[in-house]
C-alpha cells in the first residue's frame, strides 16, 4: 500500500512561525517556531524549521509549502530549498510571499482583495486576469496600519504626552508598565535586537485602550484603519475595480480578525474609501492558505507568484 503523502506547511512571520504537518485525512501536528528574520537568507531559515520538525516528530516530509514575509523574487530559491530538505523525503516544494498565502486563506482563488495585518502589512487584489500587491515594504518604509505601525504610534503618543506636546493618555501608564520609565523607553527599544516585534507588541494595549474609550488610542486605530482601507482601494483599482462595484475584502492576521474595535474601524474606513467593498471574515487560517499553495491550478493569476520545484517523477512544473 502506498503511504499517505505528508505535507509540511510553514507560515513564516516576523514575530513567529507556525508549522503544520498534514495528510489527506487532516492535521497530524501543528507547532510554533521562531520568527523569520528578513535581514537573513529566508530559505535557509525555512529549511532549518523543516529539519527541526522532522527530527522532533520522526515523520518524513513529502511536500513542503511555505508562505513567508521578506521573500523577494530574487530571494526565492525553491530548488535550493528542495535540495536542503530532500534528505527528509521532500519531493515537491512551493514557496510564496505571505501575501499570496494570505490571499488564499482570506478569499480562496476568487477575485477580491486581501489585507494581511500582523507585525507588518501587505495587501493583495485579484481579478480574473490580474494581481496587484500594495505595501509590504517593511517597518522602515511602509507597513502602514500594521501592528508595528499602531504600536509605534502608541509609544509616540505616550512620549508626546510625557513631553507636554499632546494630551495625557492612558497609554502613558501602560508604556511604563511594559517598558519602564518613559524617559528611558527609547533606549530600551533601541537596545533590543527584537525591537520590531517589541514595538509591535504595544499594538494590543493601544487597541484595548481604544476599546475602553481613550481618545488618543481611538484616533490611532482610526488612522490605521484609514491606511488599510486606502491600500485596499489602491490595490483594487489596479486590477480594474470601479467604485460602487462589489468586492470581497478578506482580512487575516490577529489585528484584523480578533479585534472588534479594529474591524469596526476598518469597515467604516472601507465604506468611505471603497464604496461597494465589503469586509468579510476570512475563509480560513493563514496556514490553510499555505497548505493550498501546491493546489493552485496552472493558468490562475496567482500561479506565477508561486515558486515551485520538484523531483522528476513528481515535478509540478
Task: Walk me through this protein's architecture.
There is one protein chain. By secondary structure, the protein is α/β, with parallel strands linked by helices. It folds into two domains: 7-103 and 285-314, 2-Layer Sandwich (Nucleotidyltransferase, domain 5); 109-280, ATPase, nucleotide binding domain (Nucleotidyltransferase, domain 5), CATH 3.30.420. The protein contains 13 helices and eleven strands. The chain has helices spanning 42-57, 78-85, 98-107, 138-141, 147-163, 171-179, 185-191, 195-200, 203-211, 215-238, 254-257, 260-273, 286-291; strands spanning 7-12, 16-23, 26-34, 63-68, 92-97, 112-117, 121-126, 131-135, 247-252, 277-280, 307-310. A six-stranded mixed β-sheet has the order 3-2-1-4-5-11.
The residue ranges in which pLDDT falls below 50 over 5 or more consecutive positions are none
By helix and strand content, what is the structural category?
alpha/beta
Contiguous helical run count: 13
CATH class wording of the largest domain: Alpha Beta
State the CATH superfamily name of the largest domain: ATPase, nucleotide binding domain
In summary, what is this structure?
With 317 residues, the protein is α/β, with parallel strands linked by helices. Helix content is 42%, strand content 21%. The protein has 13 helices and eleven strands.
List keywords for this structure.
single chain; 317 residues; Nucleotidyltransferase, domain 5; 2 domains; 6-stranded mixed β-sheet; 5-stranded mixed β-sheet
Produce the secondary structure layout:
Blueprint: E1 7-12, E2 16-23, E3 26-34, H1 42-57, E4 63-68, H2 78-85, E5 92-97, H3 98-107, E6 112-117, E7 121-126, E8 131-135, H4 138-141, H5 147-163, H6 171-179, H7 185-191, H8 195-200, H9 203-211, H10 215-238, E9 247-252, H11 254-257, H12 260-273, E10 277-280, H13 286-291, E11 307-310
Parallel strand pairs: 1-4, 4-5, 6-9, 9-10
Antiparallel strand pairs: 1-2, 2-3, 5-11, 6-7, 7-8
Helix pairs in contact: 1-2, 5-6, 5-9, 5-10, 9-10, 10-12
Amino acid at each position: 500500500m502506498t503511504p499517505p503523502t505528508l505535507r509540511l506547511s510553514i507560515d513564516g512571520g516576523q514575530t513567529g512561525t507556525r508549522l503544520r504537518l498534514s495528510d489527506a485525512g487532516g492535521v497530524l501536528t501543528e507547532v510554533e517556531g521562531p520568527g523569520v528574520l528578513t535581514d537573513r537568507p529566508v530559505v535557509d531559515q525555512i529549511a532549518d524549521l523543516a529539519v527541526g520538525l522532522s527530527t522532533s516528530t520522526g515523520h518524513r516530509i513529502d511536500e513542503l509549502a511555505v508562505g513567508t514575509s521578506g521573500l523577494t523574487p530574487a530571494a526565492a530559491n525553491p530548488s535550493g530549498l528542495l535540495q536542503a530538505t530532500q534528505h527528509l523525503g521532500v519531493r515537491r516544494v512551493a514557496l510564496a510571499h505571505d501575501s499570496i498565502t494570505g490571499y488564499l486563506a482570506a478569499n480562496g482563488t476568487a477575485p477580491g482583495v486581501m489585507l494581511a495585518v500582523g507585525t507588518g502589512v501587505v495587501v493583495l487584489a485579484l481579478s480574473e486576469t490580474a494581481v496587484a500587491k500594495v505595501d509590504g515594504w517593511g517597518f522602515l518604509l511602509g507597513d502602514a496600519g500594521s501592528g508595528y505601525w499602531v504600536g509605534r504610534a502608541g509609544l509616540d503618543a505616550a512620549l508626546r504626552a510625557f513631553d507636554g506636546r499632546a494630551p495625557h493618555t492612558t497609554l502613558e501608564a501602560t508604556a511604563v508598565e511594559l517598558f519602564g520609565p518613559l524617559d528611558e523607553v527609547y533606549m530600551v527599544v533601541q537596545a533590543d535586537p527584537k525591537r520590531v516585534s517589541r514595538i509591535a507588541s504595544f499594538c494590543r494595549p493601544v487597541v484595548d485602550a481604544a476599546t475602553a474609550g481613550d481618545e488618543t488610542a481611538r484616533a490611532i486605530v482610526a488612522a490605521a484603519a484609514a491606511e488599510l482601507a486606502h491600500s485596499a482601494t489602491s490595490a483594487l483599482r489596479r486590477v480594474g475595480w470601479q467604485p460602487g462595484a462589489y468586492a470581497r475584502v478578506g482580512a487575516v492576521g490577529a489585528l484584523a480578525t480578533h479585534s472588534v474595535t479594529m474591524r469596526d474601524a476598518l469597515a467604516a474606513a472601507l465604506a468611505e474609501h471603497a464604496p461597494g467593498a465589503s469586509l468579510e471574515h476570512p475563509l480560513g487560517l493563514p496556514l490553510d492558505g499555505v497548505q493550498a499553495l501546491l493546489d493552485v491550478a496552472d493558468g490562475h493569476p496567482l500561479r506565477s507568484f508561486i515558486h515551485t520545484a520538484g523531483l522528476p517523477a513528481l515535478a509540478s512544473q
